[in-house]
Amino acid sequence: MKKIIVSATLFACVVGHAAAQSNQEAAALANQSGCMACHKAEGKLVGPGFQDIAAKYKDQPGAVDMLTQKVKKGGSGSWGRIPMPAHPQLSDESAKVLVTWVLRGAPAQ
Ligand code: HEC
Question: Is pLDDT of 70 > 60?
Answer without folding.
Answer: yes
